[in-house]
Specification:
By secondary structure, the protein is α/β, with parallel strands linked by helices. It is about 40% helix and about 25% strand.
Protein backbone atom coordinates (compact mmCIF):
# COMPACT_ATOMS: atom_id res chain seq x y z
CA UNK A 1 0.00 0.00 0.00
CA UNK A 2 1.22 3.51 -0.88
CA UNK A 3 2.37 5.02 2.43
CA UNK A 4 1.08 8.41 1.26
CA UNK A 5 -2.44 7.14 0.52
CA UNK A 6 -5.20 8.32 2.88
CA UNK A 7 -5.81 4.74 4.05
CA UNK A 8 -2.14 4.30 4.94
CA UNK A 9 -2.07 7.62 6.80
CA UNK A 10 -5.31 6.71 8.57
CA UNK A 11 -3.71 3.71 10.27
CA UNK A 12 -1.26 5.84 12.27
CA UNK A 13 -3.33 9.03 12.67
CA UNK A 14 -4.80 10.26 15.94
CA UNK A 15 -8.56 10.79 16.31
CA UNK A 16 -8.48 14.43 15.19
CA UNK A 17 -6.40 13.63 12.12
CA UNK A 18 -8.64 10.67 11.29
CA UNK A 19 -11.70 12.93 11.14
CA UNK A 20 -9.94 15.04 8.51
CA UNK A 21 -8.86 11.99 6.54
CA UNK A 22 -12.39 10.56 6.54
CA UNK A 23 -13.54 13.86 5.01
CA UNK A 24 -10.72 13.70 2.48
CA UNK A 25 -11.65 10.19 1.41
CA UNK A 26 -15.41 10.44 1.30
CA UNK A 27 -16.15 14.06 0.48
CA UNK A 28 -13.41 15.20 -1.88
CA UNK A 29 -13.06 11.95 -3.85
CA UNK A 30 -15.61 11.57 -6.67
CA UNK A 31 -18.48 9.29 -5.70
CA UNK A 32 -19.20 6.15 -7.69
CA UNK A 33 -22.02 6.52 -10.24
CA UNK A 34 -22.73 10.09 -9.13
CA UNK A 35 -25.05 11.73 -11.61
CA UNK A 36 -27.09 8.63 -12.42
CA UNK A 37 -29.83 7.13 -10.31
CA UNK A 38 -29.59 3.47 -11.13
CA UNK A 39 -31.92 0.75 -9.85
CA UNK A 40 -30.33 -1.67 -7.37
CA UNK A 41 -28.93 -4.90 -8.73
CA UNK A 42 -30.86 -8.12 -8.09
CA UNK A 43 -28.40 -9.03 -5.34
CA UNK A 44 -28.80 -5.62 -3.72
CA UNK A 45 -32.61 -5.83 -3.93
CA UNK A 46 -32.49 -9.16 -2.10
CA UNK A 47 -30.40 -7.59 0.65
CA UNK A 48 -32.72 -4.59 0.92
CA UNK A 49 -35.65 -6.98 1.27
CA UNK A 50 -33.77 -8.92 3.95
CA UNK A 51 -32.99 -5.79 5.99
CA UNK A 52 -36.59 -4.62 5.62
CA UNK A 53 -37.96 -7.96 6.79
CA UNK A 54 -35.69 -8.03 9.84
CA UNK A 55 -36.41 -4.44 10.88
CA UNK A 56 -40.16 -4.62 10.23
CA UNK A 57 -42.69 -1.76 10.06
CA UNK A 58 -44.17 0.59 12.64
CA UNK A 59 -41.10 2.47 13.92
CA UNK A 60 -41.06 6.08 15.01
CA UNK A 61 -37.51 6.93 13.88
CA UNK A 62 -34.72 5.01 12.12
CA UNK A 63 -31.12 6.14 11.68
CA UNK A 64 -29.05 4.86 8.76
CA UNK A 65 -25.30 5.32 9.13
CA UNK A 66 -23.31 5.60 5.91
CA UNK A 67 -26.40 5.85 3.71
CA UNK A 68 -24.49 6.37 0.45
CA UNK A 69 -26.80 6.87 -2.51
CA UNK A 70 -29.88 6.26 -0.37
CA UNK A 71 -31.44 3.09 -1.76
CA UNK A 72 -31.86 1.56 1.70
CA UNK A 73 -32.88 4.93 3.15
CA UNK A 74 -35.81 5.06 0.75
CA UNK A 75 -36.84 1.52 1.67
CA UNK A 76 -36.70 2.42 5.37
CA UNK A 77 -39.12 5.29 4.70
CA UNK A 78 -41.82 2.66 4.43
CA UNK A 79 -41.01 1.33 7.90
CA UNK A 80 -40.90 4.49 10.04
CA UNK A 81 -42.42 7.93 10.41
CA UNK A 82 -38.95 9.51 10.26
CA UNK A 83 -35.76 8.21 8.63
CA UNK A 84 -32.43 10.02 8.95
CA UNK A 85 -29.59 8.99 6.66
CA UNK A 86 -26.09 10.28 7.34
CA UNK A 87 -22.96 10.12 5.22
CA UNK A 88 -19.69 12.01 4.86
CA UNK A 89 -19.87 12.16 1.08
CA UNK A 90 -21.65 15.26 -0.17
CA UNK A 91 -21.82 13.78 -3.68
CA UNK A 92 -23.50 10.60 -2.42
CA UNK A 93 -25.95 12.63 -0.31
CA UNK A 94 -26.92 14.70 -3.35
CA UNK A 95 -27.66 11.48 -5.21
CA UNK A 96 -29.64 10.20 -2.22
CA UNK A 97 -31.71 13.39 -2.17
CA UNK A 98 -32.53 12.96 -5.83
CA UNK A 99 -33.52 9.36 -5.17
CA UNK A 100 -35.73 10.37 -2.23
CA UNK A 101 -37.41 13.03 -4.40
CA UNK A 102 -38.74 10.23 -6.61
CA UNK A 103 -40.76 8.82 -3.70
CA UNK A 104 -44.35 9.82 -3.16
CA UNK A 105 -44.63 13.17 -1.38
CA UNK A 106 -45.77 11.47 1.84
CA UNK A 107 -42.81 9.10 1.85
CA UNK A 108 -40.28 11.74 0.76
CA UNK A 109 -41.26 13.94 3.69
CA UNK A 110 -40.15 11.21 6.08
CA UNK A 111 -36.56 11.24 4.79
CA UNK A 112 -33.85 13.54 6.15
CA UNK A 113 -30.30 13.34 4.75
CA UNK A 114 -27.44 14.89 6.71
CA UNK A 115 -23.69 15.17 6.23
CA UNK A 116 -22.21 13.70 9.41
CA UNK A 117 -19.40 11.53 10.75
CA UNK A 118 -20.66 8.22 12.18
CA UNK A 119 -17.97 8.38 14.87
CA UNK A 120 -19.38 11.60 16.36
CA UNK A 121 -23.15 11.73 16.03
CA UNK A 122 -24.79 15.14 16.34
CA UNK A 123 -28.03 13.89 17.89
CA UNK A 124 -29.46 14.06 21.38
CA UNK A 125 -29.60 10.85 23.43
CA UNK A 126 -32.53 8.44 23.12
CA UNK A 127 -33.54 9.70 19.69
CA UNK A 128 -34.03 6.61 17.50
CA UNK A 129 -35.67 3.24 18.02
CA UNK A 130 -33.63 1.56 15.27
CA UNK A 131 -30.20 2.13 13.71
CA UNK A 132 -28.80 0.44 10.60
CA UNK A 133 -25.38 0.31 8.95
CA UNK A 134 -24.48 -1.82 5.96
CA UNK A 135 -20.96 -1.98 4.49
CA UNK A 136 -19.91 0.90 6.73
CA UNK A 137 -18.29 -0.22 9.96
CA UNK A 138 -15.40 -2.01 8.24
CA UNK A 139 -14.27 1.33 6.79
CA UNK A 140 -13.68 2.82 10.26
CA UNK A 141 -10.31 2.90 11.98
CA UNK A 142 -10.17 0.15 14.65
CA UNK A 143 -10.12 2.73 17.46
CA UNK A 144 -13.13 4.48 15.94
CA UNK A 145 -15.25 1.32 15.88
CA UNK A 146 -15.69 1.42 19.66
CA UNK A 147 -16.41 5.18 19.63
CA UNK A 148 -18.99 4.63 16.88
CA UNK A 149 -20.73 1.83 18.78
CA UNK A 150 -20.90 3.93 21.94
CA UNK A 151 -22.38 6.81 19.92
CA UNK A 152 -25.06 4.58 18.38
CA UNK A 153 -25.89 3.22 21.83
CA UNK A 154 -26.24 6.80 23.10
CA UNK A 155 -28.68 7.99 20.41
CA UNK A 156 -30.86 4.86 20.52
CA UNK A 157 -33.93 4.83 22.73
CA UNK A 158 -33.91 2.31 25.59
CA UNK A 159 -34.12 -1.19 24.09
CA UNK A 160 -33.63 0.28 20.61
CA UNK A 161 -31.88 -1.98 18.13
CA UNK A 162 -28.84 -1.73 15.89
CA UNK A 163 -28.52 -3.84 12.73
CA UNK A 164 -24.96 -4.15 11.42
CA UNK A 165 -23.94 -5.82 8.14
CA UNK A 166 -20.26 -6.11 7.24
CA UNK A 167 -17.86 -8.59 5.60
CA UNK A 168 -16.58 -11.32 7.90
CA UNK A 169 -12.82 -11.16 8.53
CA UNK A 170 -12.75 -14.96 8.44
CA UNK A 171 -14.96 -15.23 5.36
CA UNK A 172 -12.32 -15.46 2.63
CA UNK A 173 -12.58 -11.87 1.37
CA UNK A 174 -9.80 -10.35 -0.73
CA UNK A 175 -7.67 -7.62 0.83
CA UNK A 176 -8.94 -4.08 0.33
CA UNK A 177 -7.03 -1.07 1.67
CA UNK A 178 -10.27 0.71 2.64
CA UNK A 179 -11.35 -2.16 4.90
CA UNK A 180 -9.61 -0.97 8.05
CA UNK A 181 -11.63 -2.95 10.62
CA UNK A 182 -12.58 -6.37 9.37
CA UNK A 183 -14.22 -8.39 12.14
CA UNK A 184 -15.71 -11.83 12.64
CA UNK A 185 -19.08 -12.55 14.23
CA UNK A 186 -17.40 -13.21 17.55
CA UNK A 187 -15.25 -10.08 17.43
CA UNK A 188 -18.06 -7.70 16.48
CA UNK A 189 -20.42 -9.27 19.01
CA UNK A 190 -17.86 -8.72 21.78
CA UNK A 191 -17.19 -5.12 20.82
CA UNK A 192 -20.90 -4.37 20.71
CA UNK A 193 -21.35 -6.05 24.08
CA UNK A 194 -18.64 -3.82 25.57
CA UNK A 195 -20.44 -0.78 24.16
CA UNK A 196 -23.60 -1.74 26.04
CA UNK A 197 -25.53 -3.89 23.58
CA UNK A 198 -27.18 -7.21 24.38
CA UNK A 199 -29.65 -9.73 22.97
CA UNK A 200 -27.65 -10.57 19.84
CA UNK A 201 -29.42 -12.32 16.97
CA UNK A 202 -28.69 -13.20 13.36
CA UNK A 203 -30.49 -14.98 10.51
CA UNK A 204 -30.32 -18.76 10.71
CA UNK A 205 -28.71 -18.96 7.27
CA UNK A 206 -29.05 -16.09 4.79
CA UNK A 207 -32.57 -15.11 5.80
CA UNK A 208 -34.87 -15.23 8.85
CA UNK A 209 -35.80 -16.83 11.17
CA UNK A 210 -33.53 -15.03 13.56
CA UNK A 211 -31.54 -17.10 16.04
CA UNK A 212 -29.14 -16.43 18.88
CA UNK A 213 -25.92 -15.06 17.36
CA UNK A 214 -23.88 -17.58 19.36
CA UNK A 215 -24.94 -20.09 16.69
CA UNK A 216 -23.11 -18.06 14.02
CA UNK A 217 -20.09 -17.54 16.29
CA UNK A 218 -19.81 -21.29 16.81
CA UNK A 219 -20.34 -22.00 13.13
CA UNK A 220 -17.52 -19.72 12.00
CA UNK A 221 -15.21 -21.30 14.58
CA UNK A 222 -15.97 -24.78 13.28
CA UNK A 223 -15.51 -23.79 9.63
CA UNK A 224 -12.23 -22.06 10.46
CA UNK A 225 -10.86 -25.16 12.19
CA UNK A 226 -12.02 -27.43 9.33
CA UNK A 227 -10.68 -24.99 6.71
CA UNK A 228 -13.78 -25.39 4.56
CA UNK A 229 -14.09 -22.31 2.36
CA UNK A 230 -16.98 -23.24 0.09
CA UNK A 231 -19.58 -23.50 2.87
CA UNK A 232 -19.19 -19.97 4.28
CA UNK A 233 -21.65 -18.37 1.85
CA UNK A 234 -24.13 -21.27 1.93
CA UNK A 235 -24.28 -21.22 5.73
CA UNK A 236 -24.61 -17.43 5.94
CA UNK A 237 -21.33 -16.62 7.69
CA UNK A 238 -19.20 -15.22 4.88
CA UNK A 239 -20.62 -11.83 5.91
CA UNK A 240 -21.70 -10.68 9.36
CA UNK A 241 -25.28 -9.64 10.09
CA UNK A 242 -25.92 -8.86 13.73
CA UNK A 243 -28.91 -7.27 15.45
CA UNK A 244 -28.53 -6.19 19.07
CA UNK A 245 -30.51 -4.16 21.60
CA UNK A 246 -29.50 -1.22 23.74
CA UNK A 247 -29.05 -2.65 27.22
CA UNK A 248 -30.41 -0.42 29.96
CA UNK A 249 -28.99 -0.56 33.50
CA UNK A 250 -31.48 -1.86 36.03
CA UNK A 251 -33.76 -3.45 33.44
CA UNK A 252 -35.03 -6.91 34.14
Amino acid sequence: MDRHSPYSRMRTADSRERAKIYAEIYDTAPGANVGAIRPPSDRRRRRLALYSRIIGPGHEAILELGCGSGDLTCVLAGLARRVVGIDMSGASLNLARRRAALLTSNMAQRVQLVKMNAVSLEFTPNNFDYAVSTSMIEHLHPEDVDAHLREVWRVLKPFGRYLVWCPNRLGHHKFRPDHLSMMSYGELRERMRQAGFAGFSSPLLNRPPMVDARYKVGLEQILTRLRIGMLWSHLGVRNVLLVASKRVAGAG
